[in-house]
Amino acid sequence: MAQLQMMRDQATGNPVMANPYPEVKGSQYWTEFDQGSIIFSERDTAEEVVIAFNAFNHTLEYRDGRELMAYSPGRINGFILNAKSAPQFFRSGYNIPGVGTNRFVELLVDGEYTLVNHKYKKMIDDPGATYGSQRAKAFSNVEDLYVFKDGEAFLWKTRKKAMVEFFGDEVYKSINELSNTYNLDLKEKTDIRRLIMLLNADR
Predict the structure, then answer these.
(1) pLDDT of the residue at 12
(2) Beta bridge mates, 14
(3) Of the candidates 158, 2, 132, 139, which has an alpha carbon nearest to the alpha carbon of residue 57?
């Protein structure tokens, strides 16, 4: 009860239509509704709330009785999806190039080098649609990894020129040494995450 009160005190989210895209194949949600947590501030967190991340509208949706409500980035600090099984921690406030701060991103590594995963959905022509049904649409998942340092953002690319520009020669050398030592594939998310953790530990 206190949690519900806290959610109301924090200014409730906006009401949401149950299924605004009936014609579109797939789901606008990154994962389906599950128990999670909503982080309002460093002090206030609502736990065991049924939530889902709408990766098309970039909002966090939650169930309030029979109603669906949504929080946009800026209204809350973040949330934790699948809190019990495989927690994914999302935060707002990171300045994604060409997009701005009005996004929730998954925080993979926090430190001198911070690694985030910008997950979102696009509406595309349905590749599985039969010939002639040109209007068929589908949701498509997109993930972009960004490294942040001192407020600067780097869209993860393995091209030497781009990496040297962002990391500098010394750190680029360390990246090569670490990836050779630990046999890291710098196109694999889990290995990139490990690399950034190793870089932070090295500093």
Answers:
(1) 60
(2) 70
(3) 139
**Domain total in the chain:** 2
- What confidence tens digit (pLDDT) does each residue in 136-178 have? 889 999 999 999 999 999 999 999 999 999 999 999 999 999 9
State residue 201's pLDDT score.
Answer: 94
C-alpha 181, offset from chain centre: 29
Residue 109 backbone phi and psi in degrees, to 5: -140, 135
Rounded distance between C-alpha atoms, residue 173 and residue 164, angstroms: 9
Q: Where are the alpha helices (DSSP H) in 63-117?
A: none
Q: What is the pLDDT of residue 1?
A: 45
What torsion, rounded to 10 degrees, do the Cα atoms 35, 40, 45, 51 define?
-10
Domain that holds residue 9: 2-156
Q: Identify the segments of the chain with pLDDT beneath 50.
A: 1-2, 9
Q: What is the rounded CA–CA span in Å between residue 69 and residue 83?
A: 19
125 and 175 both lie in a single domain: no
| Domain shared by 143 and 161, yes or no | no
